[in-house]
Amino acid sequence: MTRFLHRTNLAFFLALVSTVTIVAVVADENDSYQQHHTIVEQGGIVEHHSRNLASATAGVDSRLIAYLGNWEACPTSAQTDQYSHIFIAFAEATCTSTCTIGSPVAICNNAVNPTLVSTWQAAGKKVVLSFGGASMGGSWLKDPNGCWDACVGKESSVVTQLVNIVNNQKFDGVDIDYEYFYNTAARQKFIKDITTGLRANLPVGSILTHAPMDSDMVSGKAYYDILKNVSSSLSFLNVQYYNGITNPVLDGFAAATYSHYKNLVDNIFLGDATKIVFGFCVTECVEWNANSQQAVKVLSDLKGYYPCNGGAFFWDGKDDPSGSWSISVAAAVQPSVGCSKTPLKPLVAAPRQPVKIPSKPIPVLSPKKPVV
Fold first, then answer.
1. Tens digits of per-residue pLDDT, 243-272?
2. Is it true that the peptide bond before 104 is cis, omega within 30 degrees of 0?
3. 225-242 burial by CB neighbour count: b if 16+ within 10 A, else e?
4. According to a count of CB atoms within 10 Å of the terminal CB, is the N or C end of the chain lower?
């Protein structure tokens, strides 16, 4: 169940009826949901209840993306029914001079499971390969000697290897999870060249994303500037709003995150909020953790400013047994599926509060077990 505060005048309508049931179908070649909606007035607040009548499918807005650790147990259908996109984490490169990316890539339970990919795709999901992750090195390390450095200067090889994996395992695209240092020209060139190289060489229509930490997506930082310059190559951006400088769960979207989010929308994607996917961590990120009710509150506040946005992602699938986290979050996201076809106006004015930035951000490393 989720609650939305509608600021349109429904007084006359609600004077005639106290409860109205509406069945709506939003469908096209890219997205298809069926929702059952009930509008009820209680104490002057209009509640909008939704439940899924069909499995979520991938579209160009209002996504619910699950990252699945491929060393963990395979998800159940109760989980995947809620997801529009499934990101397989991770493909990793060796720390040797060859920068060899292990393949074939396990899907879940340390196994390749090719039938799962085709089954999810047949249900309308997009299955994307995530490359990198914390195990390849993090910017919080004192000694910058992560496995990413073994690949710097080998951009063409990285692109070729990833494209081959996508083609061989029938993935729908690539996500770049780069959480490492970018303080040299060579590292910056690496980020730029693998992004543009993948866009040029992946099959037409493939998804291509990055999953940066919020602390890296600040004007003037090199990673931010790179993604701004290559934004035409990106399908969308998965921003980790749990790994550094903002805490929307504790401080609220308006006070903690609105200015950061708005800057990405306006200056990287020229006002298109469907290109920003809001990231949550469920259990592994200490004070940044978001249970389902907290995530719904953040997303509801986000919709007040950006009624049509890119949706949400979460880390990771093991924390969603039987859809315990995703069912209510999907109910908050799904009613706006297809909204990019009919733009909506914001319900509330932009807040004036500054972004709250801790004096010493402490990124949180998600534990990672190696794929065997």
1. 889 999 999 999 999 999 999 999 999 999
2. yes
3. ebbeebbebbbbbbbbbb
4. C
